[in-house]
Structure formats: structure tokens, C-alpha cells
Amino acid sequence: MTRLSSRALLALTLTLVAGGLLVLNLGGYLSAAQGLVLRPIGGLQEWLAQRVSAVQTLLTSPADLTTLRAENQRLEAEVAALQREVIALREQANEAEVLAGLLGYARTRPESRYVAARVIGQDVSPFIRSIWLGQGSDEGIQQGMPVVTERGLVGRISEVYATVSRVQLITDPTSVVNVRLQTSRADGSLEAQVNGELWVDLIDQSASVTPGELVLTSGLGGSFPADIPVGQVVTVRKRDYELFQQAVIQSSADFETLEIVLVITNFQPLSPGQGVP
Amino acid sequence: MRYVTGSLLMALLAIVQSTVLTRLAFLEGTPSLILLACVSWALVGRAGEAMILGFIGGLFLDLLSGGPFGVSSIALVASVYLASLTEGRFWEAHILAPLGVMAAASAVYYVITTAAIWIAGHPLSPDRAFAQVFLPSTFLNVLLALPSVQLAGRLQEAAFPPAVRMG
User: Fold this and answer.
1) Is the pLDDT higher at A23 or at A54?
2) Is B26 in a helix, a strand, or coil?
């Protein structure tokens, strides 16, 4: 057998094995094995995410960086230790700030119970908008639970393993959230577009929707608790010949800078899998 | 032993891809570290190993993605197989050959993974996928192709030094 044909045979074998794994996974037979592999990976991801976040914070603070550089020249012998200390403190301060915000939010909603979870990674596919959290079923997280920050709705838990879980963001094109416009009291359905825009569709034509209006979860359908801020109306698209009007909204949560989020653990969604691929 | 080390490296690259590179996207594209590593390993003459490592690396990538499990493995095996076809061609030794191979391998990889996500029912805009993901990701992969192949070459020399006959 030539080298090329043996290589083709290897490629074919591996493709068939991968296809077999694909089928087994669709049947749900690989969940336990995946959870087992994700346990150490999640730990390493969390460790790396903390370091990357700390370095990012350091690099985006030019004034403090200058101070650090001055210190660097003055105290060369201590610089390595000082830098490590500064990075750690900065990260702690940053974390404390985020946690204080989240705590403030949690206090305004005493009826809900929360688990704070660190964001340890994002989906490696640019077409799927989801994030990984460093907490899983060991902390009581279950599929379908809503995920928020102090600024508003982030998404919901779509996959859970013992130590990590995946959150489908509301910016994912397959996500659907029932919402209500605060002033006009009109109901609608929030859907993300493939270009990343968030649209509220199915708004009654008679509703008077204005830019700047706040959009909240409606609680209809039982997938999310009611009255969680989702965003603000930016523009309204109303055409007389259409059954419904649409509104483009700006999300409340900043999905680019998510570090720590809150999972609402005492909310039982009516259908945990609905809208979750 | 080489596959254990390779698997650990693949796991590490998948973690870096998920944790670090997703924060450094160019438009919506990022270089694919596992694709770079496996294609480079194939280009330095270890295509069989590269295919198996691509298969393993693809599983790690799919673990960290909401996409269909196993698809990245298929895409990586196909990309590496394509890269291995250059072996023995007269232009194989050309300094710029890795660039072309990496561009072709990237195209195969992104077409397969995107098609699988689309078939799985995830809405996609082909124009946007091409302009925001395919092109920038392929550009970044091509940009990193030469250093990646050079690194793979050095690693191969260190790990598998050529046998020398004495006397």
C-alpha cells in the first residue's frame, strides 16, 4: 500500500470515528465523558482567564502603568514582586467592584437566590454566542436557569457539567426572550440577528413605542423571571402594511466585558430546553 | 508517549483559543491555533501524526463549543489530509508554499465547520460569515503560517533527530 493511500485510509477512519462520536453525542451518550474531561479543562481555563483578565486590566490603565514604570526604575530589585502584587491587587479591586455591583443588584431582588460565577471562556466558534462559567451542577446550577449581571439579562444556562456550564447569550441568533416595553406596556419577542443586532419583534402595531424606552423580560412563557432589564429601544421600524412593528434595542449588559455573572438558582423555567440548542 | 504529549498540547491550545484568542478577535476572526499546529506538523513531514492530533484537538475544540461534537475533528482531519498532499511535489520546498497550503487548509476547515453549524439549525449569513469570519481568520492563519511551520520544524528536529550512521 502506498504512503498516500494509507494516509487516505487513516483520514477516512478518523472521519468515521468522528462521525460516530457525533451520532453518540446527539444521542446524549457522551455527556458523562465530556463532564469528566471538562473538569480539569475548566479549572485550567479559570486559572488562565483570571491571569488574562488581570493583564488586560493592567494594560488598559495607562496612568497606573506609568506609575508602575516609574517604580520600576526606582526599585529595580523589587519590581518583579511589586508588579505581581499590583496585578493581584488590581484584579482583586476590579473583582470587588464587580461583586459590589452584583451584590447591589441581588439586594434589589431579595426574592431570587444567586450563584456568582466567573466567566472562564467564550465559544470557540464565532457563529455561536455563548460563554463558559467556572461553576456547574456542583453549585446547584441547572439547565435553563437565567443569567444576569447588575446591568441586566445575559442569557440562560444551556449546558451543565459538574464544574463548568455554558450560557447561551441573548445575542445568539437561536435565543428567544419574551419581553415587555416598560412605558408602552407592549409585549414582544427579542431575537438576535446574525449581524449581532437585537430586535424586538411581534410588537402590536397600535403600541406607541419610542426610542429610549426600557425593555424588560415579560415572564411570559416561563423561561425567564419578569422585569429583568434587557436593554433600551434605539430605533423603531413601523410599516402600515405589516402586522407588527419592530424595535432595535441596545442591550443593557456589556457582553464584551463580562467577568462575573449571577445565575438565578431558585427560578424553575417551565421548559429548560426551550430555545436552547 | 508522543500522542499523550500531543494531546496535552492540543488541550492547552484549545483552552488558549477559548480563553485568550476570543478576546483578541480581528473583526470576528481569530487564528485557529490547533489548525496552525496540525497543518504545520503535516508540512514538516509528519502528516499521519498531525491527522491524529487534529482529530484529538478537534474533540477538545468541540468540547468548548456549542457546535456539533466531532465536526471540528472531521474538519481538521480533512485540512491536514489536504496539506499532506503537497508532500513530494516539486514546489513543496518553496519558502512561500506554507502560505498557500495554510490558506487552502483554512478554507476547508471553515467551510466544513460553518456548514455543520448551519445544518445544525444555527442561522448564518453567508456574506457576513465570509467577510467577518472566513477572510480575517484565514488571513491571520496565513500570517502565522511561516513562524508556525518554522517552530514545528525546530520541534521536529529536537524531538526526532535524524539518525546518523557512523563509519
Assistant:
1) A23
2) strand
pTM for the whole structure:
0.75
Evaluate whether B66 touches A277 at the Cβ level (below 8 Å): yes
Which of A10, A52, A174 comes nearest B51 by C-beta?
Answer: A10
Report yes or no: A194 at the B interface, CB cutoff 8 Å: yes
From B115, which residue of chain A is nearest by alpha-carbon distance?
Answer: A127
Instruction: Quote the CA–CA distance of B80 and A182 in Å, as a whole number.
Output: 54
Query: Could you tell me if the ipTM is greater than 0.90?
Result: no
Nearest in space to B57 (alpha carbons), one of B29, B81, B33, B40: B33
3-state secondary structure B28-89: CECCCHHHHHHHHHHHCCCHHHHHHHHHHHHHHHHHCCCCCCCHHHHHHHHHHHHHHCCCCC
**What percent of chain B has a predicted confidence (pLDDT) above 70?**
96
Task: Write down the H helix ranges in chain A.
Answer: 3-26, 31-59, 62-74, 79-108
Phi, psi of A234, deg, nearest 5 = -100, -55
Higher pLDDT, A105 or A18: A18
* Residue A172 in grid coordinates: 445568539
